[in-house]
Amino acid sequence: MKTTFLLLCTGIALHVGAQQPIPAAKQKKSILLMNGIAHVGNGQVIENSVVGFKDGKITLIGDARVMRIDMSAWDTTINIAGKHVYPGFIAPNSTLGLTEIEAVRASNDFYEVGGYNPHVRSQIAYNMDSRIIPTVRTNGVLLAQVTPRGGRISGTSSVMQLDGWNWTDATQRKDDGVHINWPSVYSRQWSDNGIVYEKSKNYEAQKQELQQFFAEAKAYLENPGERNLRFEAMRGVFNGTQRLYIHADAVKDITESVAFAQKFGVKHIVIVGGTDSWKCSEFLKTKNVSVMLSRVHSLPARSGDDLDQPYKTAAQLHDAGVLFCFQNEGDQEAAHTRNLPFLAGTAVAYGLPKEQAIAALTGNAALILGIADRVGTLESGKDATLFISEGDALDMSTNKVIWAFIEGRRLDLRNEQQELNEIYLKKYGLDPK
Fold first, then answer.
1. DSSP result, 106-152
2. Which CATH architecture group holds 90-375?
3. Segment 273-306, tens digit of pLDDT
4. Which CATH number is associated with domain 22-88+377-433?
5. What is the enclosing helix (H) or strand (E) of 266?
6. CA-based nearest residue to 217, from 324, 284, 119
C-alpha cells in the first residue's frame, strides 16, 4: 500500500491494474491563467490574456493589461506567458472509443447488421478504457462526436468527453443526430486508364427506398401505431432537436440529398465528407447547410482536380461563407484522431486564416454539433474545457500540450505510447529528454 501511494503522489502515470490514466477529479480550487495568448475559438485572439475558471466553468476572460483582477480571489494562479490557450479541440464524425484495432474485428463496435438502423446509439458503446483516447488528448482533442458506420442509415451519434469512468460520465450531448449514407449517383471503377466514373444503375432504386423509409417514419410519428424503434429514432430529425448528417461527396449527391431532406422538413442538415463542396459552396451557403470536411490529407477525388485541392477546400468554403469543421474519417481514423489539429495546419498553409482554422476545430464544430452553448469558445459561463500548449497547436513541430482541462478537471496527459518510448530510450542508454 505504501509503495502504491508514493507512485500516485509523484504524478507519474504508472498504473496498478489500470489501462489508462485515472479520470480527473472534479475541480475544487479556482484557477487563474495569466499572460497567455488566448485563441478564443471564434476568430479572435487575446495576446496578453487572463482566463479564470471555478467549479468547472469559465468565469473570467479578457485582456490582462486592462482588467482589474483581485488576485486574492483565486486559489491557484499560473503564469503562462508566451504559451497558447485554446478551447478543447473537437473531433466530429469519429469512431474513437468504438474501435481499438481495426484489423481485430472483436475490438470494433461501430457497425450494426442491417441497412436502416437510426435506433442504434453510439453513446452506450463508447469505451472509456480505450488506450487510444489518452494519445488523442495529448494533442488537445478533448471532445469527440462518436459515430456509427455502415448501412444506409448508420445510427445515432453522441458527443463525448475524452475523460470519465464510463460513457455516462463522458456524455457531453447524447443522441445529437442521425447519420445517413446517401447513395452515390456515380460509382468509381478501375480501368487501364485509371479511375473512371460510371453512373450507378441502382441509384434511383436506392433513393426511392430511402424516401419510402422517411415517408413511413414521418407518417408513423404523426399517427403512431404499434411501437417502431426505428421510426421513433427519427423523431428528433423531424422536430428539429437533432441534426441530420448526410454523408455525401459528389456535387449531385450533395445537392440532391439536401433537396431530399428539405422536402421532409428537416431543419438542421450537415454534409459529412463534402469532397466536392467547393464546387457547390454558393448552394450550401444559400441553403444554410454546414459541412464536416473530408480528411484534408487525402488525394484529389479525380485525376483532373488540382493535386492540392483537398488542402485548399477549407479556404474556399471559408471565402464562400460556408460554416464548416474538420473531421478525419478514413483508414485508422480512431488512432489518427490525434492528427486532427495538423489537418487544420495544412489548410492554413493553403490559404485558410489561422484563427479560422482554430475556429473550425472549436467554435464552428460546436455550432455544427449543437453544443456551442457549453463549449467551443473561451467565454464566461461556458465549460472550462481547454488546454495550454507551449507552441502553435496546429504545427506538429511546436505543439506541446502541457495542461488540459475538461470542465475544470485537470487531465493526466500521460499515455502508454509515451511510457513505452521512455522505457526503450532508457533501455538503450538514450536520453529520454
1. GGB-SB-SSSB-TT-BSGGG--TT-SHHHHHHTTTEEEEEE--B-SS
2. Alpha-Beta Barrel (3.20)
3. 999 999 999 999 999 999 999 999 999 988 888 9
4. 2.30.40.10
5. none
6. 119
